[in-house]
């Protein structure tokens, strides 16, 4: 099929109706919880309540702009306004985080991350050190090669992150034998750095999950 630039794709109206219904339901829920909250200032400062508010604000901002006679679609032609509109639309994705309030699995996952903050911090620190170390080594080994993609140490950060996390896109690769040896060291180091904390995180997840099951049984 040939691509036609004159075709304008419009979303089905049913999705707009569903979004409006969900927003009204979220708003009603938020207002009721705010009214019955014993400490309203603390209510506003709670992370999940901030997420809830962020999820519904863009909808009402767009309605407010429309009531003021501002065409939201026409703002897309203005460079600064385009960024604002895009941010408002991206913030709609925050609504999916509301599921964490009602999902036991997401609650368990969040508690696991909280209890494993020390291990995650250690992993991040060691991984950052490894990225800087291997990026620097590879740059000084490959900088004099004509076909080397590593033009600076920061340019090698992407390669080091992809390599140490064992993703391996292959978009940037060393061209010298010494560079390949450094890449091998980065791969092995990445496996060790990621494997050790992950076992602790999995253990914390099992403990929290079992504790949650016991609470349900009791």
TrEMBL record:
The chain crosses the membrane at residues 12-31, 43-61, 120-141, 153-169, 181-202. It is a multi-pass membrane protein. The keyword Ribonucleoprotein does not apply. GO terms for biological process: action potential. The keyword Transmembrane applies. It comes from the Eukaryota. InterPro entries: Ion_trans_dom, K_chnl_volt-dep_Kv, VG_K_chnl, Volt_channel_dom_sf. GO terms for molecular function: delayed rectifier potassium channel activity. Coiled coil: none annotated. It holds the Pfam family Ion_trans. Its main location: membrane. Residues 13-210 form the Ion transport domain. Keywords: Cell membrane, Ion channel, Ion transport, Membrane, Potassium, Potassium channel, Potassium transport, Transmembrane, Transmembrane helix, Transport, Voltage-gated channel. GO terms for cellular component: voltage-gated potassium channel complex. It is found in: Cell membrane. This is Ion_trans domain-containing protein.
């Amino acid at each position: 099929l040939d691509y036609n630039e004159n075709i304008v794709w419009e979303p089905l109206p049913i999705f707009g109706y569903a979004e409006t219904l969900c927003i009204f339901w979220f708003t009603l829920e938020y207002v009721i919880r705010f009214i019955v909250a014993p400490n309203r200032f603390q209510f506003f400062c709670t992370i999940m309540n901030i997420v809830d508010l962020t999820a519904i604000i863009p909808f009402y901002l767009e309605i407010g702009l429309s009531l003021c006679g501002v065409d939201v679609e026409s703002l897309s032609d203005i460079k600064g306004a385009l960024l604002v509109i895009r941010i408002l639309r991206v913030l709609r994705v925050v609504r999916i985080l509301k599921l964490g309030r009602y999902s036991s699995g997401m609650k368990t996952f969040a508690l696991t991350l909280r209890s494993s903050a020390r291990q995650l911090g250690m992993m991040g620190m060691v991984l950052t050190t490894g990225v800087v170390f291997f990026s620097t080594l590879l740059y000084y080994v490959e900088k004099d090669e004509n076909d080397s993609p590593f033009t600076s140490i920061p340019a090698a950060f992407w390669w080091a992150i992809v390599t140490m996390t064992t993703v391996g896109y292959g978009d940037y690769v060393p061209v010298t034998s010494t560079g390949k040896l450094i890449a091998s060291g980065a791969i092995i180091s990445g496996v060790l750095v990621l494997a050790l904390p992950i076992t602790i995180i999995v253990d914390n997840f099992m403990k929290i999950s079992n504790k949650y099951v016991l609470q349900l049984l009791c």
